[in-house]
């Protein structure tokens, strides 16, 4: 493999390229950072770097549309450098980062601060969400157009941080301000408040973690998703349901049949873990909002990846320190780190026969592009950015804690047998990861949106 530091010309030859219709043995030529030609048997032009991808799969770089990298204010848990290193190691070449930092990202100055922090430090391409609040609801339409902003995020239920839009009147103001798809954490906050109050009254010194999915129950998710879909229909504003956790919400989306007005995300946590086993095995490390639930929800989500309505996969990478996660329930914070392990888990699903490589392309590249209007990415064709990941489908073994680059060690998938690992990542023609380890300077840039 050759590739000089500032050369954005690269020929990736002999690999099996993932296209929307399957795998194809061919060469990918990248010139000046853009895909120039896809055809077998190409020779490298003068001065062009080369990678022999024989025996490997060649995927476009994956996009993770939901990560929490905690900067500013939560750098003990993660920052943009460590989070983006984990992303690149795992084959994610772009991410959209959530606004529940400290301070929260609720105005253009806070967005500008994040872009300044990411420049020269993020190893993957980046975009940032604006958080909605009762105070900024009417200005979001003006601000959502800030270049590199991935849109507006609403917390209908409170989770990590203090962002919250809990009533319909404020939510309707948010939906009437602007035109881009609004992305939503859908849990009904009034019900959550009641249920946490009852829990702490009954268990003043801490409760069993297995109660997590009872407190944040199916009705909590359904109530707010019903309210959201009603308001989306009323205002004609497209919405995105993040990290759907229940079979009932999938049925709701199908029954309401609002077409492209509603898109849906699933996380690997809800696709690969089940309750109560995850709480027995991993305790609060498996605690996230909305909760991981019983196997029937996991099975419904797996089916919905293939048959709809799931549009994309986001990791909801949500790191917390080991000390914080060691607190008892409900005092421990919710969230599971996952940006580095999404692709390896999805490859394992292909090995296990419930997903196809084309589904990974649809859910982790085309899906985020469709949901958020991301430009210049997609299945590799001439003119697209030369961002790709090589995968060795034959690498098998347990997930090793010492490979993981997140500052949070609390990954419940450690030890799980995985099949298929990312081996090389390329950003605009430059090798940015080899053998699962990020290399060279941080080359991430802001994403652009249609
Ligand atoms: O479990 C979660 N953790 N769910 C969220 O919605 C937020 C996240 C976090 O930021 O920790």
Write the layout of secondary structure elements.
Layout: E1 10-19, E2 22-31, E3 34-38, E4 49-52, E5 57-60, E6 62-67, H1 80-89, E7 92-97, H2 108-118, E8 125-131, H3 140-143, E9 149-155, H4 168-176, E10 182-185, H5 189-202, H6 212-215, H7 218-235, E11 239-241, H8 247-256, E12 262-266, H9 268-272, H10 277-282, H11 295-307, E13 310-313, H12 322-325, H13 342-352, H14 357-372, E14 388-398, E15 417-427, E16 430-434, E17 437-438
Parallel strand pairs: 1-4, 1-5, 6-7, 7-8, 8-9, 9-10, 10-11, 11-12, 12-13
Antiparallel strand pairs: 1-2, 2-3, 5-14, 14-15, 15-16, 16-17
Helix pairs in contact: 4-7, 7-8
The site of (4S)-2,6-dioxohexahydropyrimidine-4-carboxylic acid has 10 residues, from loops.
Based on the model shown, name its key terms.
single chain; alpha/beta; Urease, subunit C, domain 1; eight-stranded parallel sheet; globular; binds (4S)-2,6-dioxohexahydropyrimidine-4-carboxylic acid
Textual characterization of the structure:
This protein has helices at 80-89, 108-118, 140-143, 168-176, 189-202, 212-215, 218-235, 247-256, 268-272, 277-282, 295-307, 322-325, 342-352, 357-372, and strands at residues 10-19, 22-31, 34-38, 49-52, 57-60, 62-67, 92-97, 125-131, 149-155, 182-185, 239-241, 262-266, 310-313, 388-398, 417-427, 430-434, 437-438. The protein is built from 14 helices and 17 strands. With 450 residues, the chain is an alpha/beta fold. It is 30% helix and 23% strand. The longest helix is centred in the middle third of the chain and has 18 residues, at 218-235. It starts with 9 loop residues before the first strand and ends in a 12-residue tail after the last strand. It is globular and about 70 Å long. The protein has 2 domains: 10-59 and 381-438, Urease, subunit C, domain 1; 62-372, TIM Barrel (Alpha-Beta Barrel). The strands form 2 sheets. Strands 1, 2, 3, 4, 5, 14, 15, 16 and 17 form a 9-stranded mixed beta sheet that branches. Strands 6-7-8-9-10-11-12-13 form an 8-stranded parallel beta sheet, sandwiched between helices. The mean pLDDT is 97. Helix 4 (168-176) packs across helix 7 and helix 7 (218-235) runs parallel beside helix 8 (247-256). The protein binds (4S)-2,6-dioxohexahydropyrimidine-4-carboxylic acid (DOR). Residues 68, 100, 159-160, 185, 288-289, 318, 334-335 line the site of (4S)-2,6-dioxohexahydropyrimidine-4-carboxylic acid.
